[in-house]
Amino acid sequence: MSAAPAALPRPIRYGGRFAPSPTGPLHFGSLIAALASCCDARAAGGTWRVRIEDVDEPRSRPGAERAILDKLQQYGFVWDGPVVRQSGRSAAYEHALARLRSADAVYACTCTRRELEVAPLGPTGERIHSGTCRKPAGEVRTGRAQASLRVRVDGSVVSFVDLLQGPQRQDLRSDVGDFVVRRADGLHAYQLAVVVDDAWQAMTTIVRGADLLSSTPRQIHLQRLLGLPTPDYLHIPVAIDATGEKLSKQTQAPPLPDDAIPALLAAWRFLDQRPPDAHPATVADFWSFAVRAWSRLRLPPVAMLPAPRDC
């Protein structure tokens, strides 16, 4: 494999973002991620952008994007620049794939769903791909028309220090295996799209839920292969329900209420931030306080926390 290109210099000004998927309405877990990422960016005097991660187009729901943006505005979020949609960024992802091909960093994989389901589980709870389709036996197996593209991980061990969760280390080969960057149906995978978009939008700090912590080494691996800068990462606790499940659209988490201030204050308490001296009378009052009072040092350094009962 040829050497990775030299990484681009990192931007000086803080760049942050919130990147929801349009698969349903925002819920309390979404609010936590949006609030933390926005406050961290604004407290640093940086930019904060909104990206709609609709790369998995079949899962997108009609009207969900509009509902998400309307709810963010209702809750007082103000973002910089236009909203970016991954569905309009296919050319950029194909360009990245071309670079990976030229470095012989990807190969066609025709493993069936059934074959993948019997692969061993790794520490992340995902199936570890064995590299069945790698060269020299890596040509598409006969009789199988559709192929995904997988990135070779070889002996790559990725270490980084999360700004909240601390030192992290993942042996990609033994913990994850070669991973998909373009699906068999032709759609680009999340891991590739998020890496390309974070670099394009000059993101310096990624604040998101700790459920994505195990994906970060794969993204750093891609950044290195593509010569892209690696941002700082800060993974906040995810909110879990009474059964221990993460609040999500899949677990039927209730949508955010129309009354914004109680929900914003609940998310603020979840993040263990200093309470306001007085109850904010307006959403604008809350934000004026929150940006001034935001402190990374107060964030709970855990992966998950129970959500408030009424959320």
Question: What are the main properties of this structure?
Answer:
single chain; about 300 residues; alpha/beta; 3-stranded antiparallel beta sheet; globular
Notes on the protein architecture:
The protein is an alpha/beta fold and 311 residues long. The protein has one domain (15-306): 3-Layer(aba) Sandwich (Rossmann fold), CATH 3.40.50.620. It contains 9 helices and 12 strands. It has helices at 28-43, 64-74, 90-102, 113-117, 172-175, 190-200, 216-226, 260-270, 283-293; strands at residues 15-18, 47-52, 84-85, 106-109, 148-151, 157-162, 166-171, 179-182, 205-209, 232-236, 238-240, 304-306. The strands form 5 sheets. A 3-stranded parallel sheet has the order 1-2-3, with helices on one face. The protein has a 3-stranded antiparallel sheet with strand order 4-5-8. The model is unreliable at 137-143 (pLDDT under 50).
The span between the termini is: 50 Å
Radius of gyration: 20 Å
Number of domains: 1
Name the average pLDDT.
90
Q: Topology of this protein?
A:
Elements: E1 15-18, H1 28-43, E2 47-52, H2 64-74, E3 84-85, H3 90-102, E4 106-109, H4 113-117, E5 148-151, E6 157-162, E7 166-171, H5 172-175, E8 179-182, H6 190-200, E9 205-209, H7 216-226, E10 232-236, E11 238-240, H8 260-270, H9 283-293, E12 304-306
Parallel strand pairs: 1-2, 2-3, 9-10, 11-12
Antiparallel strand pairs: 4-5, 5-8, 6-7
